[in-house]
Amino acid sequence: MKTIAGFDRIGEENAFAVLARAGALAAQGKDVINLGIGQPDFRTPEHIVEAAIKALRDGHHGYTPATGLPVLREAVAADLHRRFAVEVDPERVMIVPGGKVTMFAAILMFGEPGADILYPDPGFPIYRSMIEFTGARPIPVPIREENGFGFSAEELLSLITQQTRLIILNSPANPCGGVTPREEVDKLVAGLAAHPQVAILSDEIYDQMLYDGEPHVSLLTYPEIRDRLILLNGWSKTYAMTGWRLGYSVWPDGLYDKVRKLAVNAWSCVNAPAQYAALAALTGPQDAVVEMLSAFDARRKLTVDLLNELPGVSCITPKGAFYAFPNISGTGWKAKALASELLEQAGVATIGGPDFGTLGEGYIRLSYANSQDNIRRAIERMHDFLS
To answer: Where is the Aminotransferase class I/classII large domain (predicted)?
Structure first.
């Protein structure tokens, strides 16, 4: 059967293919250490789980508003005010079933043939996939190792044309762990004054995963772009809730009703008990968040130290998220071939840099959302393989 051309342009996220292959090898009896998938290895905190169970027992089994429970939208606004000292109208908060939904909605709104959308490269692969689906032209914004894997405002601004409709930003970043410093964000926002037709999607899903005292610079704190800013965030990473499929976004006035209508057409509403769990996450104790970040920090340091001992490998220290993006160009391997052989021969799952964009060649991604023992064993296997 013939489908529209857009469906032939849809890409995918290779991390899930690697996860499936690692599972298949494990089922065959092979010992596989997975440093490929980007999800915390911690359990969702117990008080959050209990809130969902209580919601079910209390009879919250029906539809909720398409935009999300009012009490949850109010809690999101309060949390953003607490952390960034910004006023957010709960009537501009949208509760969605996962962070990708916000990407889908925003890119669908602005992407069409003849339009350009700027996105980070290396970056989360769904950005480019969705841009191509809409028929828009994907314009990569280079994310370079020499910039600490943050974007250059000057380079980004130079790519804007009259055809540019949307810019996608991500800091702290997947796959590189880079954090764009405030001075670069300041330069970007100042430069965007000359391009009032351009909307911004700021993916801040890792906003609480920063290290060494590095502050998070939220685009919400720049009032001059609030009327064209879409904020993407959620619970998956911060609260170890990837499988709960919970996200939220903040939309400017002119776009909010459009995404509400999309929700009515596409997903009706978000799972009701999950929303009560999300409420408990924001309003309850934050001890587990602090503990997870402390564990990730220790793993980050260990991962970087061990990677820099590998022959032909160098790795700068990531400032955010839970990924390392080592440079493997000195090994003589192409990145995807190395990642494949590390899985098949050494039993270590990683992701080849080109799965995150053309500028990912020469790098592989490792997630240190795994135990220190497993990280040590995995990188020892990598050492043996490369030696």
So the answer is: 30-381
Tokens of 358: 């053309």
Cα separation of 227 and 201, whole Å?
12
* Rounded Cα–Cα distance for residues 133 and 138 (Å): 10
Asked if residues 307 and 324 have their Cβ atoms less than 8 Å apart, the reply is yes
Pair type for strands 116-121 and 137-142: parallel
Considering just the CA atoms, what is the radius of gyration of the chain in Å?
21
For residue 25, pLDDT over 90 is answered with no
| Extended strands (E) in the chain | 33-34, 93-96, 116-121, 137-142, 164-170, 199-203, 229-234, 247-250, 323-324, 348-349, 351-352, 364-367
Rounded Cα gap, residues 272 and 278, in angstroms? 10
End-to-end CA distance of the chain: 50
The pair of structure tokens assigned to 20 is: 């499936």
CA atoms within 13 A on the CB side of 202: 25
Q: Give tens-digit pLDDT for 104-163.
A: 999 999 999 999 999 999 999 999 999 999 999 999 999 999 999 999 999 999 999 999
**Neighbouring residues of 253: CB distance < 8 A, sequence distance ≥ 6:** 92, 227
The DSSP symbol for 58 reads: T
The separation between CA 47 and the C-alpha centre of its own chain, rounded to angstroms, equals 25
> Taking the mean position of all CA atoms in its chain, how far away is CA 38?
9
Q: Which domains does the chain have, with CATH numbers?
A: 5-43+287-386 (3.90.1150.10), 48-283 (3.40.640.10)
